[in-house]
Design brief:
This protein is α+β, with helices and mostly antiparallel strands and 530 residues long. It has helices spanning 14-23, 55-68, 70-74, 94-100, 114-119, 127-158, 162-171, 173-184, 195-205, 207-221, 224-230, 236-269, 274-291, 330-340, 354-359, 365-371, 396-420, 430-452, 461-471, 473-479, 485-492, 511-529, and strands at residues 29-36, 43-49, 76-84, 89-90, 106-109, 296-305, 313-321, 345-352, 377-380. It folds into 4 domains: 14-118, no CATH class; 127-268; 272-391, Beta Polymerase, domain 2 (2-Layer Sandwich); 396-529. The chain has a 5-stranded mixed β-sheet. A 4-stranded mixed β-sheet has the order 8-7-6-9, sandwiched between helices. A hairpin with a 6-residue loop joins strand 1 and strand 2 (43-49). Helix 18 packs parallel to helix 19 (461-471) and helix 19 crosses helix 20 (473-479). It is globular and about 95 Å long. The two termini are 42 Å apart.
């Protein structure tokens, strides 16, 4: 039985509270959200389950939902959904997730970092970016409406199939209906709302959007023959042309109003963390420059770890240019930062000297061009200047040649080691740890050089794993199961015994951990080879 890691709001009706308590006892239930919708009496009770949840479990949940009839009795829409990251399969459109699945609405999670693992890459803390993403989505759908008119309606008009053209034209309203459903509802319940039911739902809970649906319904109730009888002296073709103009203009207005609705909801319902993030970054840079002698600080990337029940944690990936620091000091530095900020700030640092920066312009051209740029500079010691010749471009052909050469060198090491693991019924022994460690090191180095043309000054497996997460987060999320990281690194960091042992014999290791580590190496190889 799972631990009762839940905080159910007191205002939830007893019948819904019991439903939640029953649901979270099911091992495949990952999360439960309870979202009171702003400026509405509607509440959303959203369950997130494993995609491979069996049919009987889902049927049992749906049966309970039907008996509760919570939408009618308590203005609460209950849904059961899945969402996977790699590969990305989701019953939540990004617009619904952005408005309704914030961490503050989590009432149950089976793991402390479940929200981050599932949704962090699909959620934006920046309201402006979220609004722009939706606006671009709206434009793309509006373009598809006009494209459908050209491809589906106009050919029928040319064939003088006017009634069929009229039917096809009215079908283009489905584009707007789909976008509207995606914003307001999880995809798992779309089939429960036909157009008339959706109209009633919107009229009750989102009255500011109901006028659009009523206008659409009014146009759809009038048949083409009815319209022809009242337009004396006009050809069927001109009538279709007028109706087409009206339909397209109405949908444009609907999309614009929906975009304004979404933007307003973002302002009232989504927390803005950009100011807080900026303030913490300034404090971090100040702390580091006071503790260490640093020439320059560049921000490589930022990642926020959002928590439902406490302050968010911000992770900053930095490039430190320092005359006396060494990358071996990294773990001590991160511990100091975590202690000073009481866990609210985490940091990962790439540490180099000014000589390294000035002398490696050709060797690490892509890395320097992408990261060592004025926009990323957060601190520069007084009277210090960076030689701009460092960023002079090397030809793309030369860069690719260097990358191919470096990857081929990694292959000369890795290929024989992979062959060593292809024996049937292989029992892993301590000697295999050395092979796996070397494979992991060379594969991560090969990926880093191939993707961002960077090679670090330290090759410890723990540091390379952090580099992989910082510079190649997409590959990290696909290849690495975060729950396995600790035991894989513990295996790879196993000390080798050279001095005579009194107890005799070597420590035994879990065969499954060997398998997980080899599987990780194979995934990294496949990504590097493509």
């Amino acid at each position: 039985m799972k631990s009762s890691n839940h905080t159910i709001p007191t205002e939830i009706h007893d019948s819904l509270r019991q439903f939640i308590l029953n649901a979270i006892r099911i091992s495949n239930v990952y999360m439960v959200f309870y979202t009171p919708v702003v400026n509405s009496s509607l509440k959303l009770l959203t369950l997130v389950v494993a995609k491979d949840t069996d049919g009987d479990t889902l049927a049992g949940l749906q049966s309970q939902i039907q008996v509760l009839d919570a939408l009618t009795r308590h203005d609460t829409l209950i849904s059961v959904n899945y969402h996977t990251v790699a590969p990305q399969h989701s019953q939540f459109h990004f617009s619904f997730l952005q408005l309704h699945l914030q961490p503050c609405f989590v009432v149950y999670a089976d793991q402390p970092k479940r929200w981050n693992g599932l949704f962090q890459n699909f959620y934006s803390n920046d309201k402006q970016k979220a609004s722009m993403l939706f606006a671009n989505h709206i434009k793309a759908v509006e373009h598809r409406v006009k494209e459908a008119v050209v491809l589906l309606v106009e050919p029928l008009v040319k064939q003088q199939l006017y009634q069929a053209a009229h039917v096809a034209l009215l079908e283009t309203f489905s584009y707007y209906i789909d976008v509207l459903k995606n914003v307001l509802l999880p995809k798992s319940v779309h089939q429960d709302f036909n157009e008339s039911e959706l109209t009633r739902f919107v009229e009750l809970y989102y009255p500011e959007l109901s006028k659009n649906l009523k206008r659409i319904a009014k146009i759809k109730t009038v048949s083409f023959n009815d319209q022809s009888q009242y337009v004396i002296g006009h050809s069927h073709e001109s009538i279709i042309e007028k109706i087409t103009t009206r339909v397209v203009e109405l949908q444009t207005g609907c999309f614009n109003r929906l975009n304004r609705f979404y933007t307003k909801r973002l302002e009232s319902q989504v927390l803005d963390t950009i100011k807080q993030e900026t303030l913490l970054l300034k404090q971090l840079v100040s702390f580091l420059t006071n503790c260490y002698k640093i020439d320059a600080v560049y921000l490589l990337s930022t990642n926020s770890i959002i928590k439902a029940d406490s302050d968010n944690t911000y992770k900053f990936n930095l490039l430190l240019i320092a005359p006396a620091m060494r990358v071996q000091q990294h773990d001590m530095l991160t511990h100091k930062v975590s202690h000073y900020f009481k866990g609210r700030v985490e940091v990962f640092c790439v540490i180099h000297t000014l000589d390294w920066l000035q002398n490696n312009g050709n060797r690490f051209q892509l890395f320097l061009k992408e990261f060592v740029i004025p926009q990323n500079l957060r601190y520069l010691r007084n009277n210090l200047t960076i030689n701009e010749n460092v960023l002079q471009s090397t030809s793309t052909a030369d860069i690719k040649k260097l990358q191919k050469q470096y990857w081929n060198e990694r292959l000369t090491y890795v290929s024989p080691w992979f062959i060593a693991f292809q024996q049937e019924n292989l029992v892993y022994k301590s000697g295999h740890i050395l092979l796996l460690k070397s494979m992991f090191q060379h594969l991560v180095l090969g990926l880093l050089h191939k993707k961002v043309q960077y090679v670090p000054a330290m090759y410890s497996c723990r540091y390379l794993m952090q580099l992989l997460e910082a510079f190649l987060p997409e590959i990290f999320k696909v290849c690495v199961h975060t729950d396995d990281v600790k035991e894989i690194l513990d295996l790879l960091n196993t000390s080798m015994y050279f001095y005579p042992r009194c107890d005799g014999g070597l420590p035994e290791h879990d065969q499954l951990v060997f398998t997980k580590t080899l599987c990780l190496c194979e995934k990294l190889y496949n990504h590097a080879a493509t």
